[in-house]
Amino acid sequence: MKMNKTSKRIIRSLLASAVLSLFHSQSEAETPTPPTLDGIGDNNAENLDVMKQKVFKHVVKLKPDGTMIGVDSHRSHSSHRSHSSHRSSSSGHSSHYSSSHYSSSSGSSGTASGLYSTPKPVAKTYKTYSLGDRTLKRGMYGNDVNELVSKLQSNCYLRKDFSATQSDYYLFNQDVEKAVRQFQKDAKIQETGSVGGTEVALLGSWNSSKSTLVLGVRDLKQNDSGADVIDLIELLDKAGFPPDPEKLEGNKYNEEVKKAVKTFQAFAGLEVTGIADKTTIEKLKVSAK
After folding, report:
1. What is the pLDDT of residues 46-65, one digit of tens each?
2. What is the pLDDT of residues 126-180, one digit of tens each?
3. Are 272 and 265 in contact (CB under 8 A)?
4. CA-to-CA distance for 263 and 171, rounded, in angstroms?
5. Residue 267: is it exposed, middle or buried by C-beta count within 10 angstroms (0-12/13-18/19+)?
6. What is the model's pTM?
7. Torsion over CA of 196, 198, 200 and 206, rounded to 10 degrees?
8. Which end of the chain is less packed: N or C, by CB atoms within 10 Å?
């Protein structure tokens, strides 16, 4: 019984599909030498004419001569015509490669970066603390205490010759605490004697003209003025060496005050300079008791 042309075409198509299916299982990244459809039947050319433009997704493409070539996995169009149209657009082609061809590369990059964790910040020590990093109180020392001492000195709350140290850094001792309390009093905040964020912020913009000058924080000499000069005059009076009140000029360290200081220094066996330095003031406090 003779087969008609339609039956032959169906059989040939089934055979071609079977061959292509076998080739599909072996087709990967490389393009192997594909089998041919030679010898399938008398009307092979007619059958090829129907199938010549079909592209098997992710696998092969059938050429007019009956051979098959491997198709890159990123080419997924259903016809040779649509793929050619896609390649004719440079922008579309670039987008196609950036979104699919390199997707695995970017993914591996992300995985690689995940292998490296962000380094943990190095813990600070007394050598690296900055003022404000921690609350300061008596007994502490370090770089931040150095910064605090400098600010207290520049605002006339602590003597310039302050020298209490530990491990080569200033020590927050009773003198520093006393200076802090005086500053807190002037700033009208709670007098805790410790230094936190509030004190640091206020000290950063403090005007020394608002500082109460406490006797002993600076060496007093002629022409100085302030509350500490008034305290010195009172101390000289208590120690028995009062300046002449009629010659005083308010809170100014004038010639009369200088004369009284010299008299006391000579009596106490100190160097007679007329300058009320730390030693002179300490001796006056002892004599005034």
Report:
1. 555 555 554 444 455 555 55
2. 999 999 999 999 999 999 999 999 999 999 999 999 999 999 999 999 999 999 9
3. yes
4. 36
5. middle
6. 0.59
7. -150
8. N
